[in-house]
Specification:
heterodimer; A: alpha+beta; two-stranded antiparallel sheet; 7 strands; 16% strand; B: alpha+beta
Chain lengths: 129, 520
Amino acid sequence: MAKKKNQATKKREWFNFNTAITLLVILALFVILKQSLTSEVISLEEEGKIILDKLTNGKEIRLLNSNVLVEKEVNKLDQMDYEEVKSMLGIKNDFCIYFEDANENVMKIDDINLGIGSSKIYINGEPCK
Amino acid sequence: MENCPYLAQFPLIKVVNMKNYIAISIITILGLLLFSEPIIAVHQDYENIEMTVTDLDGNNADAEYDELMQELADTMSGAIEPREVSFSFNVAGSLETVSVAQPQTMMNAVAGIMYEMNTQFNRDVTIITTTSPEIAGRGTTTITGGNGNGDDYDDEPSCSPRNGGWSGWSSCSVTCGGGTQTRSCNNPSRSCGGSPCSGPSSQSCNTQSCCDANMGSGCGNCGTVACDSSCTGQGVCSPGSTQCSGSTYQTCTSSCSWSNSGTDSDGDGVDQQCQDSTCDNAPGVCDTLVDGKCIAKTSTESACTDNLDNDCDGSIDCVDTDCAGTILGNVKNTNNENIDNARIDTLKGSTIQHTEYTQPSGNYQINNVLCGTYNIIASEPSYISSTKTNVNLPPQSSITVDFTGNDALVSGSTCEDDCTYSGDNIIHEECNNVNGCTFYDATAMEVCNFAQPGWIRDYNNIDPVNCPDGNCVIECADGIPEMRVGVKASITCKKENTIKLTKVIAYQGKLVKLIVITCG
């Protein structure tokens, strides 16, 4: 009888308060981290949509006319300061705009080098800007 | 049996059962048929002969006839004893005599003759002599029709005259087709010198056609009902019905014969109603469906804006040369001088559609230009080229595009080192080896002509040195259009997460992708 009691006592000790708190903290950290990563990705996607929307339908810059690219507007955007563009678009993350042909090769538009955007983003090893 | 007083009068009947009674009845009927042979003979001889009863002098003997019938009736009922009677008839000029001795035979024979006279021969009988031996109760009696001798009825002392009266009409001999019905002057019979009945003793009846009863049923396909209810004059089909006889559509006419009634407008020998193309339903139709719509075929593309292939030649609207038009005009320089041999190119996007050169008068004319929107470039090596964009050529029309006035060509070197003209930013093959412009090779020069710097073109001539795997393109790049190896866009970002959004847009007549990269 005494032996059984000792075993029960050991079992309760394994599920003590400290262990439970530790597990909860680990679980909470995991959830928070995952949520943070997810929200960050979602934020990037949303900002990408904002860029597309404002550059194709915006007032200051309108790259498309009936879905046809307007070179003049592309050049206008290319001449603008990058931070100014970010401010105009209201985004926080870095971005890069460029063009691909049907074969997914990078296309040059008019006088633009590769793309328009952040120098922290590279296209084929070259800075976007 | 007790309830049948008639049969009770015949004791023999009581001892026979019903089976025997039926047998006796059959035997009796057979016997009557045998005894009726003379009747049949008379009937056959005198059929269809109209008869009247006259005496030897040719006078009417209806009364004597009626008396004779009464005599016979009395004899048959047992009122008088029958004796031998001899009748002679003059029928249609032939003298025939019936003489019978046995009472029953006499009665049957005479009754049959009388019946025939009444019902069939309408009394067309001349009674020459009517003789009878003595009849019991009446003494020696000689019935002589019509001659006034020995007519014992007239001579009977206690007799009072009684006029004859008609019986009712008998039933008609036939139910249709015309028969006769008779009546007898025996209701009452004339006697003792009374007046005979007046009026005809027979009349026509049931004269309606037997066909009337059968018409209108069970006889289709234009047939008619005959009097025997059979159908005659039937056709091969029922009016209004249709069929496909092979590939020929037929309709049954009102005269119940097949008549071709199909539509074979395309002349392929198969009527539209017999599984031909669904288009084959109107004159001059096309068997080709266009977008599921059957269209009327015309000799040319009659309508150039309906999005249909009207003439079924596989080309719709402005793609069809039937809708083509003409572009003409004049090219001058800024001194208002006509430019000879200036090149005029029409382009759709970057593809040259037509090339023409001006005459010494500076005029040009490009025929058979498909309707649509073009960029038109006038160029001459000694001049800066001039371009007119989005020039619309309506269907089947002629437009004038002049390069004069403000659009006149400006003198000067036109080619720059990127092989474009100084005024249009379009690469021209004419600039090869001019002002630093050098194309990589003939293929690059061909595919980049009228392209813009930066455009990518397929490079079909494989350069084994620079393009060992053959998967190369030509980039009509700044400076010298050169071949380059196509490189897929590779994006890298210093931060961890990258999102790529793609929007397909049009650029210079081609579909390209607008890419947005966000990095964070």
